[in-house]
Amino acid sequence: MYDEHSTYSSRDFLMKLIAAFPFPIREVQTDNGTEWTTQLLVKDPKCKTLFEKALEDMDIIYHRIRVATPRHNGKVERQHRLDGERFYSKMRMYSLEDGRKQLQRYNKLSNSIPKTCLKYRSPEEVLNDYLAIMW
Q1: How many Å apart are CA 31 and CA 19, to the nearest integer?
Q2: I need a labelling partner for 108 at 20 to 30 A (CA). Which of 24, 46, 79, 88 fits?
Q3: Is 45 exposed, middle or buried (0-12, 13-18, 19+ CB in 10 A)?
């Protein structure tokens, strides 16, 4: 949880994601928000945001969904809707740190809920099975 939508925050999130995940991140897909990219605003394709430079430096493949087509990111959009219903609509945040603590608790709960896209298994179960095979 960040106090601003910026390419700096997005890069920071990416670095924390890479440090936290027990497997390599090979590809990232985002919408076209300016916190990720400025490709719709700038004509020069060499002009990269901090987030895009970080991906490039780490050889992570980057995809942007087509403009005005959230259906290309359907699973993410559905999760955003569920998170809104289960968490954000009920959240009462007294400080950014309080919000981060609440979000951490919610993520732990959310990752234990079975999902149809994971064949009725939870993200936690899928990750544990992956780690059992890889280690």
Answers
A1: 23
A2: 24
A3: exposed
Instruction: Locate all alpha helices (DSSP H) within the chain, ordered by sequence.
Output: 7-20, 50-57, 74-83, 96-110, 123-134
Rg of the Cα atoms in the chain: 17
Q: Which residues are bridge partners to 63 per DSSP?
A: 29
- Cβ atoms of 105 and 111 within 8 Å: the answer is no
The label of the residue with tokens 């440090």 reads 19
Q: How far apart are CA 33 and CA 49, in angstroms?
A: 11
| pLDDT of amino acid 46 | 82
Q: Distance (Å, rounded) from C-alpha 93 to C-alpha 84?
A: 14
| Model confidence, pTM | 0.80
Instruction: Check residue 74 and give its pLDDT.
Output: 79
